[in-house]
Amino acid sequence: MGEIRNAERTRRKILDAAREEFFEKGYNGARIESIAKRAGLNKQLIYHYFKGKEHLINETIDDFAGSVSSGNFILPANPKHTAEFRFKVNVEHLMDFLKFTAWEAIDSIPENSNGEERRKLVLQSYVEDMRSKQDMGLVPKELDPSLITLMMSSLTIYPLLYENVTRMITGYKPEDPEFQEKWTDFLRLISERIFD
Amino acid sequence: MGEIRNAERTRRKILDAAREEFFEKGYNGARIESIAKRAGLNKQLIYHYFKGKEHLINETIDDFAGSVSSGNFILPANPKHTAEFRFKVNVEHLMDFLKFTAWEAIDSIPENSNGEERRKLVLQSYVEDMRSKQDMGLVPKELDPSLITLMMSSLTIYPLLYENVTRMITGYKPEDPEFQEKWTDFLRLISERIFD
DNA sequence: TTTTTAATTTAACCTTTGTAAAGTTATAAG
DNA sequence: CTTATAACTTTACAAAGGTTAAATTAAAAA
After folding, report:
1. Hey, are the CB atoms on B183 and A159 less than 8 Å from each other?
2. B139 is a domain residue
3. Are A92 and A177 members of one domain?
4. A128 contacts chain B (CB < 8 A)
5. Closest residue in chain B to residue A120, using alpha carbons only
6. What is the per-residue pLDDT across B108-165, written as a single tens digit (0 to 9) for each?
7. Which residues contact A178 (CB under 8 A, 6 or more apart)?
8. pTM higher than 0.85 for the full model?
9. How far is the CA of A99 from the C1' of D17 (A)?
């Protein structure tokens, strides 16, 4: 049985499976065996296509970085809507990637200058955006654009990732649409207060 | 060489070493061998005093929970100072524990109802505190106290834990006192805006 | 068709790691 | 002083997991 041999497709399968696995379990927690199983392939094929675990995760990250269309990153004109916008993007497109960043924050993961570099550019574009809006008078002068951006990241990521905390505090699970709606509203409310 | 035999002291050494190890590497990443080494003890002693890895982490968490004096949790009277206060407490007393909560958020860690329960109580006391201040007219009525509390947690934890993100956005490392000062100031500024 | 190359599988290895079992030595009770 | 208990050490092992090597089979080239 099995399908016709096809290097391209197999490589793709491995990368997709690896993405799931690495994003879900981090580098150290990920298992080559498990990736193979997800991909429905023989474990050894992974070594045929990639040098090893470390090489695989680097390729995986690069591949992912390339796949995230930079179209998501057109921020709203009004800074009061930035937080809710970023929250929405996180919920709809970046959940699994965010989980990976959580691993990255605490687990020892081999460096990937490429992926790191791209993320840095995105984050700094957020800072620049905020700075330009500050110049336009839409953002209070006393607030540092980079710190505002860090605030936005905190508020739109932490509640999604720290399921326990969110539940202990609010009683909701982060995935609950009801929570997401409340949190969206809340972000808008405080944004209005902050940017007035 | 070696000191006089002493069960109490040995048990203590194990718990201390286990705390460091578990907080630093999470449950799955922690190594019994490494704990033994930290404690300067034979690996097998750990099995003499504890049933196994899972039992050990539970005892470790309970032990830690018992050791954190609840004295830290007297919140400032003015809600405008809550964020900076919590940030300060995190920096000065809870860094390693926070790191552990990061593991907990993404890694599969054996449940510890006891530790979980205590944390929940603390967090909910924060919510209650905010609610009472709202009743006193110090907090805008339209802001849900539990969401405010979640916001406080996000803002005082995320930047400390996500070293990469903090650095990519601000150029500072979270441990840098200069960053901590700026962030403290920032927290105060936005608190003033939010609670006015 | 023959040959060569590449995809895929089978088998095996070696290290790490959690844990068990048994042995040894100190301390305390009788 | 003898004996029992508990602290500590030594050995050993089985499972897990990353990696390599060799064998097989399909596809492409000649």
Report:
1. no
2. yes
3. yes
4. no
5. B168
6. 888 876 778 888 999 999 999 999 999 999 999 999 999 999 999 999 999 999 999 9
7. A172
8. yes
9. 23
Q: How far apart are CA A179 and CA A159, in angstroms?
A: 10
Residue B41's domain comprises 2-52
Q: Tell if A54 CB is < 7 Å from nucleic strand D.
A: yes
Domain for residue A102, yes or no? Answer: yes
> For B90, phi and psi rounded to 5 degrees?
-60, -50
Inter-chain touch A186–B151, beta carbons under 8 Å? yes
Per-residue pLDDT of chain A (196 residues; tens, 9 = 90+): 346 778 889 999 999 999 999 999 999 999 999 999 999 999 999 999 999 999 999 999 999 988 876 655 789 999 999 999 999 999 999 999 999 999 988 888 888 877 888 899 999 999 999 999 999 999 999 999 999 999 999 999 999 999 999 999 999 999 999 999 999 999 999 999 999 8
Binding-face residues of B in 6-35 toward A, CB within 8 A: 26, 28-29
Same domain for A76 and A31, yes or no, is no
* Angle of CA points B26, B30, B36, to nearest 5°: 140
- Set of chain A residues whose Cβ sits within 8 Å of the Cβ of B107: 26, 29
Residues 83-112 of B with CB under 8 A from A: 99, 101-107
Q: CA A82 to CA A184: how far, in whole Å?
A: 11
Question: Which CATH number do you get for residue B158?
Answer: 1.10.357.10
Chain A stretch 143-162, residues whose beta carbon is closer than 8 A to a beta carbon of chain B: 143-144, 146-147, 149-151, 153-155, 157-159, 161-162
Angle made by CA atoms B171, A160, B117, in degrees to the nearest 5:
110
For A25-49, the pLDDT digits (tens) are 999 999 999 999 999 999 999 999 9
d(CA B77, CA B81): 8
Query: In total, how many domains does chain A have?
Result: 2
Cβ(A127)–Cβ(B171) under 8 Å?
A: no
